[in-house]
Each structure stands twice: as structure tokens, then as C-alpha cells.
Amino acid sequence: MTLEVDKLQISYRTLRGDVRAVDGVSFAVDDGEIMGLAGESGCGKSTLGNSLVYLEGRMKHAGGTVRLDGEVLPISDQRAMGRYRLKRVSIIPQYAMSALNPTRKVGRMTAELLKSRGVRYDSVEEELKRRIDLVGLPQGVLGMYPFELSGGMRQRATMVISTLLDPSLLVADEVTSALDVSTQRAVGEMLMEFRDERFVKTIIVITHDLSILAQVADTITVMYAGKLVEKAPAATVVGEPLHPYTQALLASLPEVGVRYEDAPLAGIPGRPPSLLHPPAGCRFGARCPFAFEKCSQDPPFMELRPGHEVACWKAVRDIGGTSVLAEADQPGTEGPAGPGAGSEVPAVPRPGAQLASPTSAVSPGPGEWTGQGTGQP
Amino acid sequence: MSLLELDKVSKVYKTGTFGGELKPALREVSFNIDKGEVISLIGQSGSGKSTLGKIILHLVPPTSGTVRFEGTDISAIGKAGLRDYYRRVQGVFQDPFSSYNPLYKADRVFDMVKSVYFPGVRGTDWQAKVEAALESVTLNPGDVLNKFPHQLSGGQQQRLLIARALLLDVRLLVADEIISMLDASTRVDVLNLLVDLKRRGLGILFITHDLSLGNYISDQTVILRQGVVVEMGETPKVLGNPQHTYTKSLLAAVPQLHKKWGELGAGATVIPAGEVRAGSSNGKIAHDEVGRYSKSPLHPLRQGRGGSGGPLSSVTKTAGGRPSLMELEDAPWQRRGPKAKKSPSAVLSAYPAPPLQECEAGHFVATES
Ligand SMILES: Nc1ncnc2c1ncn2[C@@H]1O[C@H](COP(=O)(O)OP(=O)(O)O)[C@@H](O)[C@H]1O
Ligand SMILES: Nc1ncnc2c1ncn2[C@@H]1O[C@H](COP(=O)(O)OP(=O)(O)O)[C@@H](O)[C@H]1O
Ligand code: SF4
Ligand SMILES: [Mg+2]
Ligand SMILES: [Mg+2]
Fold it and tell me: Does ligand 2 have an atom closer than 6 angstroms to the CB of B171?
């Protein structure tokens, strides 16, 4: 495994208290894997991605570990992380397009960035030029200011620079979101190509757009309100999603070639909860059309099918039946939950009566998202 | 008579320090919008979509051609007529509050409507009118009134502005990329709202670069490329049976859930390198590189793994043999060129828009050279 994240907790210090934007998240990314990270805005995707590379002032590492190539990353120590940035971990932040320094030509900016990492520009210049060629940019970009580049070109230049030192991990945050569909395709294919060329070992592609991830990602992880709710190979997530949230996200995507006059899409009523005081139990509960009593307890993120992890009581009931439920009852199968952040308080589900019968006859099966939620009108 | 008629609308912008360069943004665009009809105007960044929207909203004058609203040429309406025009034609834009004074509450947009159009209406009556408009866009007045823009979600902001348009006797709505920045889950709500307005008889020009959104919402689709209409007609025909290479390439780039880009293949057409690029200022009709997707020939590693897994047969290369990613946007340096001494009309007449042929009933396509 190139990247192993274990029970990671990141919060923002605010005057009103800590916003627990990443709340006990565990996953691993294999060498050569592109992991997509999806979810509505405000779910903590950027916070998770940023924390692996750069914890800014208000962010607090509240628990958990991150390992890269087997080595623990000192994510809360900015000075120590400086040795890893660009060389081992790299990020294209959300809004990078507008964040490029407008007063520096691309070449000079690159040289300054390299210098800050103790790398001489001329030692990598040849490789830089080769890669600029490879992505179809004219060599002239190095002599241009960011505003002189179109959105797609800026995104490509940013990709080349951020992976120039062949890092193990690249976090690409919403790199396709502001682009035309056709430029999206170009940038998406470039992400795969960089992986294939081994310019980078693993990539976390963050976007709210699942259809992009269906194209570029090997695995897709869906995040909701600071927690992971589903992770599986990309085709499984878009083809046989088990979590009601994933199903709802997919059901809200219009597709070309389908007529919708008589069957309009439903969207997802409501909004993600505030992470200042996240609700107890399943965080999707208020918007979930399948919520039942059990959902007042925090569902553990567990492997219900090989390679397919889900945090949902309904999925447990539909798939696993009682044997899996018993497993879920074992303490320690999930990260800290509930208000006692940092303390090991697993929300231990009791083998409740409603779970003893794994029948799904009363509720719609996975994929049969109707949008007619019980939670909200 | 249609609600709105566009007749050979063209626009040439004067750019450069002394307006010495001429940039054609639209060439002879003609189509109509009827009552109760949604038309999607689809094109890539820089294709001229917003320019057309602004011309319809009387914010930018066309260089030539006519815009008729309910039968009247809008270039003829004076200042007083404009106030009346905006009662019936309204625009909603992406990121509507970005240039708004952050010290103002969002609902101040309603007060502006009141002072211009309804100065005589009593406070309580006005309040009731605003609340009715908010409810008709499924906003709870308590959630959005007396709030600053940043306290509202993107979807709430868009619906608030649509509600404002509804306070007027609006018949035509120009919606320019209004939902591109919203989450998929919220997008659908705004789309469904527009469908609802259309059922109530509104004409809507829905501007987008996203074909799946256009497909979802519209009766008619117009595909714009570099200011030229290349294909238009009934949406199921244009997007279901595309005829123009450009439309096919755009469709091939749409990310789909259950089909990989490489499997679609339709976009893989080789356009020789060295063609004049998009929108060059010397006025030549440009060839962009849409459809020129390429992959490194060095690493067929992708095959059999996750990711695109596309067959390498769909790989195309530039003339130089170097892989290139298609460039669809208009890069500024490509616009720099010899200073044109021509007049706007000369720029337009030197390269007229290709004629549209009816290829099946209600489906028109431009001849390809
Ligand atoms: N600087 C900040 N201070 C306080 N809260 C923040 C800050 N940045 C983000 N948040 C909160 O953290 C949560 C996750 O945000 P973010 O990681 O940006 O989500 P996403 O990338 O999925 O849209 C949100 O609830 C957001 O309001
Ligand atoms: N005010 C302006 N002055 C000069 N050129 C402009 C102006 N507005 C737009 N353009 C140019 O006209 C072309 C079309 O722009 P626009 O209508 O904004 O396209 P779209 O909305 O499809 O992205 C672009 O090349 C753009 O640079
Ligand atoms: S069924 Fe229960 S646990 Fe599963 S998503 Fe719905 S509320 Fe959460
Ligand atoms: Mg984000
Ligand atoms: Mg525009």
C-alpha cells in the first residue's frame, strides 16, 4: 500500500467550537491506484485532501495516522512536512486555477517552488521540458503569465509542475470542475497518463462529479458529513452501490440520450448537516428514505462484500444478515464516534430484534432509490 | 410570431489597446424561442454563448442582424421602453452575488425591483408578493429573507434570483451557466424548477457547456462553435442522432457513468496540426482540436486496468507524432496576430457562416467543408 490512512481526524478551530470536518476516516490506496473521492460540497473532501499535504493554521490534527510508503507522515508538523512536499506528496488545491501567482511567469514560479524545496531548476529542466511536450503544451508556456493561459492549459501546467519530482501521492482537488466537458476529458485522461507514466504512484481525485470518477478512477470513495460511507472499485460504486447516499448521488445525475419528460430526476432533499455539532447516529439519517430505528446508532464502515466497504445499517441487513451484524458488534471495528472525539467509544450496536431478520421485502432494494424520502418532504 | 426571433445576429468585438483588433464572436445566428419552450445553447468556453445572452438582454448591441421580442425590434426601444422590456425579459447568471456589496442582505434585490417597477405598492402587499414568489420557487421565505448572500447555498441564491424575475411579468428568461457550479444533487432542483416555469408558459434560453444538462431540460438545442451555429433542432434529434462532426465530438467527451470515454470513439478525428486556432484575430474560421484525444504511445499499460482502458485504436496523434491533448479553449496568445485593418462588416462577410440544411424534419446541420 502506498498510502494508509487510519482513523484520521481533522478539525477546524472556530470561535463556536471545533468543526469536525474529517471524523475518523480510514482507507488505503495501492501503488498505481487512482482513488476518486466524491460527495456534496461541505462533506470534508478538501479538508481530507489538504491534511495529507498541508495543514493550514486553523486545521488541527485531532487523531489518527497517515502512512506513505510505510512511513508515518508528520502531518501536524509543518516544518517536518516541508521535506515531503512536492517530493513525496503534492497537491493541486481546489481553485488552483485562480491561485497561481499572477505576477510570476510560469517558468520562474516553478524555479522558485523548486528552490524552496532545495532542488536546482537546471537539474530538472530537461525533464520539465519533456513533460511539457508530453501534455501537448507549447514550450512557450514557461515564459508566460498564468492569465495568458486558458483554463485547460493552466490545469495542465499545474499538473506538470506539481508532479515534476515524481511524488508518491498527488491530491487533485476539483481539477476538472471549472472546465468544459471536452477539456475535462483531456485533463481526466492526463491524470491516467501521469499514473501510467509513473510520474506519480497514487492519485486522489476529489470531485463532486461521480461521472468523471467513473471515467478516471480505479476505486471510488464516497464521503458524507466528515465520514466515509462507501468504498469499492469504480464500476461497483456506479453499478451496484450499496449506500443510500451513493444511490441518491447517482440518481441525481442526468445522462445524455435519456428523455426525462415523464420521469424527472429527484435530487436529494435537504443539505448535509453542520459539522460543528454533527447529529448522532447515521449522519445521512435525516435525508435517508430508508432510515429505521437502528440508524440512531452510528453505522460502522465495514467490508460487506470483498473489496466493498459500506457504512449503512440497511446494507448490513440486506447483505450481511446476522453473521455480519455480530461482527459489527465487536468493539474496535470503527473509529471514535460521537461527541467524545479521541476517546475510544465505539457505537456498539446491540443485536437488535429488527436486525435479526435480514429480509428486505419491506424496503426497496439497493438501486431502487425513489427520492420519496421519509425524512423530508 | 415567436416570442423571440434572432435574425442573422452577428457580433464583432473591438479589442486591443486602441480597439484596433477585431474579434468575431457571433456569425449570423438565427433561431426562435417560443412561449413555453426551453432552448439550450450549448458550446464551449469562448464560443459566444454569453455574448448572445447579453445581446438578447439588451446589454450589448449586435454588430448586425435583428433581435425581435414579441414582434418588435429591440434595437428600436428607447430608455423608457427598456424599463418595460426588462419587465418581460430577465437574465440569471452564474455566481450571481459575486459582484454584490457584501454589506447588503440578499433580499435587497427585491427592493430594487419594487423601487423601479412597483413604487406604489404598500409594504405589506409587497411582502406578500415576495413571499408568494419565493414559495413558487420552493424557497421557504424564513430561510432566505434577511440573510447575507454567503449565508445562502448556491441553489438558494439561484432560486432567489429566479423568484425576483417572477415578480415581474417575465416571459423570457436567459439563464447563463446558472447551475454549472452547483452540486449534482442541487442542480436537479434548479433544473426541475425551470421545467416548471416553462410549463407555466415562460420561454427560456438555457446556456450551458454541459450537454447532459441541456439534454435534460430542453425542447430545442443549438450547438454553437466559435460563434457559428453548426447544428440545431429538436433536442432528441440533435443529441440522439448528431450529424455534425463537432456535435459528435462534444458528445464523445461527456463523461458517462457506464461507458468509458475510449469506448465511444466517435470523437477521434484527426485534424491536421497547423490549422489556424480558435478565434484568431485575422478572422479566419478556426479549427479547434475537438476530438483529438490522444494517449502516450509509450505506455499501453492502461489497458486492462482501471481508468479509461480505452482501445488504443482510438488514439490519434498530431502531425508531428507527438501526443497532444485537445485544446478547446481560445488561448489568448493565439488571438494575437497582425492588426486587422478591416471593418467589422468586412470581417464578417469575408467568412460567412456556413448554411444550415434540414437533414430530417426539425433538425438542421451546417455543411462541413
Ligand atoms: N477554514 C474553515 N473554518 C471552519 N470550517 C471550515 C473551514 N473550511 C471548511 N470548513 C468546514 O469544514 C467542512 C468541510 O469542508 P470542505 O473540506 O471544504 O468540504 P468539501 O471539500 O467536501 O466541499 C464544511 O462543513 C466546512 O464548512
Ligand atoms: N467585451 C468583450 N470584448 C472583447 N472580446 C470579448 C468580450 N466579451 C467576450 N469577448 C470574446 O468573445 C468570445 C465569446 O465570448 P463569450 O460570449 O463570453 O463566450 P462563452 O460565453 O461561450 O464562453 C470570446 O473569445 C471572448 O474572449
Ligand atoms: S439506512 Fe440508516 S444507516 Fe443506512 S444510510 Fe439510511 S439512515 Fe443511514
Ligand atoms: Mg472542496
Ligand atoms: Mg459565458
Answer: no
